[in-house]
Design a protein that fits this description.
Elements: H1 3-80, H2 82-87
């Protein structure tokens, strides 16, 4: 064999030996990476659910604000009506 072939075989042998040592060490890292990815996916689902709940609450708030506006309008319309003036006691009201 040529010296360059022996050198190449030696380098390949060293690389193979290094891979044998390094690959098992990488496997726990792969498991940890898989755990982190699973946790990230779970958190993404939880965030999506919370965003949905927030949207629902915002819709409820908007509906309640509309109800309050409607009630205020009704009260103010009643205050302006003649019937309200007739029902209102004359003079100061004692508390």
């Amino acid at each position: 064999m040529k010296p360059s072939s022996l050198a190449r075989i030696s380098r390949l042998s060293l690389l193979a030996a290094a891979l044998v040592v390094v690959l098992p060490a990488c496997q726990p890292g792969q498991a940890r990476l898989a755990q982190l990815e699973a946790a990230q996916q779970q958190q993404a689902r939880e965030i999506a659910a919370l965003k949905q709940q927030l949207a629902e609450r915002e819709e409820e708030v908007a509906q309640l604000e509309t109800c309050v506006d409607d009630l205020e309008n009704t009260v103010y319309e009643d205050e302006d009506s003649v019937a309200y003036d007739e029902e209102r006691p004359a003079g100061p009201v004692a508390l």
